[in-house]
Amino acid sequence: MRLIIITLFLYAWGLTYSQNCLDLSAYSDSYLQDVSTDDVTYPVGSAFISNNFITYVKPSIGNAYGYILGDTLKFDGELDIDVSTFTCSNKKLEFYNGEWGHFGIAVDNDTIFTGPATPPTNYVGTGWVYEYDGNLKFTITGDFNIVSLLSGPNQEVFGTCLSCEEESSCLDLSAYSDSYLQDVSTDDITYPVGSAFISNNFISYVKPSIGNAYGYILGDTLKFDGELDIDVSTFTCSKKKLEFYNGEWGHFGIAVDNDTIFTGPATPPTNYVGTGWVYEYDGNLKFTITGDFNIVSLLSGPNQEVFGTCLSCEEESLNIKEINSFYPVLYPNPIDDILNIKIADYEKYTARIYSVSGINLGNFEISESPASFRLSYLKSGIYFVKLENVSGKVFHYKIVKL
Questions:
Q1: Which of 74, 147, 209, 259 is spaced 20 to 30 A from 271 at the CA atom?
Q2: Which option is the CATH number for 328-401: 3.10.450, 2.30.38, 2.40.160, 2.60.40?
Q3: Is this model's pTM higher than 0.70 or not?
Q4: What phi and psi, each to the nearest 5 degrees, are found at residue 67?
């Protein structure tokens, strides 16, 4: 019996951590017939279905690719699932096969089993791990490129999804002493502005200015007064995820790549959409920056305690397009006259415009999407937009008026 697959999307203030699943909607049964029978146009090795970094490849002649029903490919014979274009050192490929007893599986030419047989529940390959849940679902995790479904009749492969399981790298402070921090704080010749004084696992703590007092280390906690930059520019990933905690959140501020989100003393906003990145605050000391960015600045404040600083690569598991499809989108930015606001959830919103000094300069009700507002009355400069919907969700943006 075929399983009903329910894909869960986990939302955290608009972030969608999801898999990339193969979409078969653009392909027809007649096309599959051509792939099966025309070995000139579609020779061995042809990628005949491909999207979302997953490719179905024709590995041999004599296969009968029968029909598509939803996300199911029905076929007799062999099929390769190629994920070699997905840049991730710890891939996770999941798929289901409704005829598990009549085929086999190999990963990068390492044969796990051949049918007819009951699939093993697990297998450890070179740099990857295979798992079978006993109920049609197969999972391959690790560093691999091609999963081969070996010859078998009446195969039904469906629910083919791919994600990146990269693990977080956390900053290790164990090699640094309090006396070293004292030197960094007071010796501006040996440790000038811009010095990376703590650095490992692609995370660097950088001294952004003089006059900071980096006090002591306790476990993974750095205690200090003043400013600190967290530099992740050496980490090669277009969708970074930096997480850290600050025990004195009410007395400092945060900027990302010189885009100031807030300054203290103030209660941090719960979210903020930057250029290619998203900021989140969970209301309980934890801050998360996700997207394409390099430097997170902790702005001046007393008695700061930063800890739990960890970095990971979300790769294609986090899709910026998906983020923008959930968050309200403001455009253009900078603006000349008209500000457009596109709402994804179709709830009613109120937009409030503020000056940099916090003065309210206008309120607008949004009942359709996109909505347009004339802001020609504003002088040239920087302004903040606060969007709040009837459910209480709040979003913060910075705009530039030309």
A1: 209
A2: 2.60.40
A3: no
A4: -155, 165
